[in-house]
Amino acid sequence: MNRGLTVSDPGARGQCGPYSRAGWLLGLVAAGLCLAGIWAPVGVADVEWDKKMAFLIQVTARPGYNFPNSEAALAYGEALCEKIASGRPYPVMIGEVQNDFNTTDDYQASYLIDRAANELCPEQIWQLRRSAAHYRPAPAGP
User: Fold this and answer.
1) Are both 83 and 99 inside the same structural domain?
2) How many domains does one find in the chain?
3) Which residues, at least 6 apart from 80, have a Cβ–Cβ distance to it below 8 Å?
4) What is the structure's pLDDT at 39?
5) What is the model's pTM?
6) Is 64 in the same domain as 118?
7) Quick one: 22 and 88 in the same domain?
């Protein structure tokens, strides 16, 4: 009759199972690594990739930006984040985006700035809001 190994079996020593000394130590080490944050960068990398992908989808699906590739779109978005962080006034950023994309459409410019802030540098949202608080677009011409 084959009973298998149980915790009380003398032959169970040295086996790697959930109740063995090796299994217990392995679980303890894994829990310690989780608590120490050793595995945390893996989750952070996924979140960063998701945010970049969301930005790319939102700005490449809209007509008018015409980035040559995803690297150029991300570089432009990250440059916008740097401008926000440096305290560049919102009206100046709107003008720069309009100039870069040869448009007078305030909405198109503000959408790109907004998407960059929300997806690529959410820690800068309050800085952007303070800068844009009293901004009023130019009246539409006839």
Assistant:
1) yes
2) 2
3) 93, 97, 112, 113, 116, 117, 120
4) 47
5) 0.65
6) yes
7) no
